[in-house]
Amino acid sequence: MSQSPSAFGAWIRPMAARHTGEEHRTATMLELFFDLCFVAAVAQAAVAFEHELAEGHIGHGILGYAMVFFAIWWAWMNFTWFASAYDTDDVPYRLLTLVQIAGALVVAAGAADALQHEDFTVITWGYVVMRLAMVTQWLRAARSDPERRRSCLRYAVGILVVQIGWVVRLALPEDWGLPLFAVLVLAEIAVPAWAENAAMTTWHPHHIAERYGLFTLIVLGETITAATVAVRSALDDEAALGDIATLVVGGILTVFALWWLYFAQNAPQLLTGLRAALLWGYGHYLVFSSAAAVGAGLAVNVAHSTGHGHLSDHAAAATFTVPVAVFITLVWLLHHRADDLRGRNDLIHPVAVLAVLAATFAPAPVLTTGILAAALVAATLVVATRARGGADLAKDAT
Hints:
76% helix, 0% strand, mainly alpha, globular
């Protein structure tokens, strides 16, 4: 049954499963608002990460960033897939979504303390608020969708049990913090696989692809914002524009190329089953986190060029080149089937990734990375054009 949300919503609707082939299914205004508020948490995590890198705390910064970003990404992802299957746009649904947004803002407020000082108190409570709201949503779905009730109840029970674990973690000795974090992460990511095995929910492939694309777009936009702030700060410190020109050009080229590479893909055709959906959905943790890290790395390089920070030249360059390489690698892998990775044209992306990593040691690493990323876009366009030409010739021959 398809829903037709009104501008003002309805007081209450049965949370019936939406049809996977529903036409004209696009992101709602509430989903876009949800994304924008979540990006506030992404921005806070990226700023704290940048600070750790600039101070030379690379290992500590990467670990903290990975842990904080998990909370942001996982809460966003779970809402997105649920909404694709059960968005009713009634008053309870909207209110519970707003509760999740409030939780995301709490996560944003606690991101810096978690990343820099390993104080996860605030971020944990914000995360638990978001996840308990999802428990309520799943219980609503279980009541209204008897065909998938078992799956919905598995989601609700699994999420609730893991949230108890997150709260208990706060009371345990610090030595237990990291191992228990790893256990709870594994438990979190196991819940969807366990629940969906009972009965697959009716998520919409085109809607899911659009939602992931929109969040990628917003995160890349946040990267531009972070870089702009860094450049503005450098100019305020009386840095000459010529001293940071290569960084500006290289950064812009890189972000534009990353956008092009991501949106050149046809994601919906890959979302054909549970295994593909899990791999694609989970793999975006690195897509999103690396995209946000690109902005932090560019800011670090801008600060480094003006004599701020405690990193060597190569270490500063790596804060930019490594996340770019990770983004390119994951976009390439996630948007190709295994049997598509056998042609020589698929050597283009691995070669580009190696070249980007080698750019760490180039005289102008950020500019070199931007040029390489732009060259990769050009190469993929040439390959795609030739492939279409070959397909047209084959069609004409038959």
